[in-house]
Amino acid sequence: MPELPEVETMRRGLLPLVGLTVRQVVQPPCQRRPIAVEPSWSSLRRRMIGRSITGIGRVGKRVVVELSGAWRLVVEPRMTGLVSLADVPTPDHLRLIMRCADEHRQAELLYWDRRGLGIVRLLTNDEFTERYSHDRLGPDALSITVDALRDRLKTSRRAIKVALLDQRALAGVGNLYASELLHVAAISPRRRCDSLRVAEWAAIHAALVDVLEEAIRYEGSTLADGTYRNALNKAGGYQNCHRVYDRAGQPCPRCQRPVERIVQAQRATFYCPGCQRRK
DNA sequence: ATTAATGTTCAGAA
DNA sequence: TTTCTGAACATTAA
User: Fold this and answer.
1) pLDDT tens figures, A200-224
2) CA–C1' A165–B8 (A)
3) DSSP summary character for residue A108
4) Can you give the pTM of this predicted structure?
5) How many Å apart are CA A81 and CA A103, to the nearest integer?
6) DSSP character for A252?
7) A221 CA from B4 C1′ (Å)
8) A3 catalytic residue (yes or no)
9) Contacts for A247-252: CB closer than 8 Å, 24+ residues apart
10) Radius of gyration of chain A (CA)
């Protein structure tokens, strides 16, 4: 599930690791198929052990552990992955443990992933810059300007909801927050990007920032399957604020008309046909 | 038994 | 060139 607000919450939860040194990288005893680790488990151990953690970053929906010596460990949780310092939802599906310590304290980064679709990659700073350059991954959704957003999408013939999910246009928005922010902006998810006016782009941009920042304050959304947790294994709170996501048939909080579920690009979209008008 | 689920990435076709 | 579809990855709950 993790989209930008959930991954940003994970990032903040890992900040206590900064300053510690990597002591051990362990593949837990786990009957499942191991997750993808690039370039390899042995390479991770060889390159990381003994290095100190200099910072914790985020790029779109990925957590970045910055290491001394110009290395970065990128954790990409995809559908059901999460990182934690404290505990994980279930003992099985624990996929990686990184033990860290200094002379005063210790902590361990746990990577847990129910479906196991996530990827962990160790990259040099140069490889990182190349892989996440702006033509492969757009500007971060929290920092993109309204002009850059409009410039990147205004000639596209795609529906706005579909375009917002394109990580090469902007990084961080996923299926849940795309529906939510378009409801706040009062724009139909079916509108073609090339039909949107300047004022509408401004509304989308404002809603983008507002919704993501509000969701971060609530530490993200934990859906019915309970998979997502923050770094202390606590559920997020933003699911109680959802206006349309997974609320088909329930009244729109703005105009009381029932929320509708449609399918765009093979994924569910939720919107209010009453206050998100015009195709 | 079938279906859908928050994501990414590729191949192939329109 | 752009856009769309389907598939694959693996698990689980409805």
Assistant:
1) 999 999 999 999 999 999 998 887 6
2) 11
3) E
4) 0.95
5) 31
6) P
7) 19
8) yes
9) A252/A183
10) 20
